[in-house]
Amino acid sequence: PPIVPQAQLESFQEHLSKSTRILALLGAGLSASSGLPTFRGAGGYWRTHDATMLATPEAFNHDPGLVWQFYSYRRHMALRVEPNKAHYALAELARRKDKFLTLSQNVDGLSPRAGHPIDKLKLLHGSLFDVKCSEFFCDYKESDNFIDPIVPALELPRDESDPTTADALQGRELDIANENVKLHEIAMKDLPHCPKCKKGLLRPGVVWFGEALPGAVMDDIDRWIDESPKIDLMLVIGTSARVYPAAGYVDTAKACGARVAVINMDPEDVPASGMGDEDWFFKGDAAQIVPELLK
Ligand code: BJW
Hints:
Elements: H1 6-18, E1 21-26, H2 29-32, E2 45-46, E3 49-50, H3 51-54, H4 57-62, H5 64-80, H6 85-96, E4 99-104, H7 110-113, E5 121-123, E6 126-133, E7 141-142, E8 202-206, H8 215-226, E9 233-237, H9 248-255, E10 259-264, E11 280-283, H10 286-293
Parallel strand pairs: 1-4, 1-9, 4-5, 9-10, 10-11
Antiparallel strand pairs: 2-3, 6-7, 6-8
Bound molecules: ligand BJW.
Ligand BJW binds near residues 32, 38, 125, 206 and 210.
């Protein structure tokens, strides 16, 4: 049976076909069925640690070894999983529609791997595969660092009972809250260091809470929005839409006249400003629903 009610599907597709300027906001739920856990809700724990508590400069300053183990694990997982049908369907739509812009909060690299045109993809929260110096005085940065593990000390614990080290990602239901796996202490000297200043620790090139989003990315988005007062459609896919300024783009799009289509497993996770009569909520797995909607 079709996952999406026929009448809703038709009204959405009719609007999509007429839409010229389209924005999409992506979140962790898009990559969930590829096997990557989300931040909030059941999946949002990594070895008893709340994932959102690890995504802060304070956590890194306090315990860089712990935070690096979290990110090393995430880099490893992101490299092992594959983009799903929704990543591909979005990449295809982005190619097809001239005035299309994707704002992704995801750092997993799956949209680029699905062939999403790079000029139409803005990474709001950086990438797991960007690395930069953590010292304020040093501007060292690298992108596309896919070395896994980035340093030998960050090799994942070799525990056969740990599904995160098992070779097959069976069921893709990762027990990331596994309390039984002991994290090891990593000596400061064994963490990744900056090759430029030789002083600072390297850190993942992602945006943590309290940090500014990349200025150039924000400028590109502002320019795109300012090109025309009208946006036809805003797609909000697999995000709790609670983290700002990312979530604020939904309101910007609405103010430009956009109708909003939300694709989410959880009917509670609608944008904070609510849904209008002209908007759509499609409940379910983005990996199934997005390809059907964008057909
Ligand atoms: C499915 C599914 C399936 C599951 N199919 N769906 C205004 C008001 C209040 C607070 C603030 C504000 N402005 C700023 C703030 C502070 C803060 C903030 O927003 N806090 C709120 C939480 C209250 N924002 C910031 O700090 C930002 N910086 C900033 O504002 O700087 C100001 C500044 C200016 C100048 C100088 C200095 C500072 C930065 C925010 C950075 C967020 N970073 C993270 C970590 C990135 C690195 C990493 O990955 O580790 O980004 S936090 C985390 O949340 C990550 C995500 O991108 C982001 C959003 O999460 P997302 O993607 O929505 O995931 P979930 O888990 O929340 O939701 C998943 C959804 O999928 C759910 O809805 C599920 O139902 C659904 N789902 N399976 C479809 N199969």
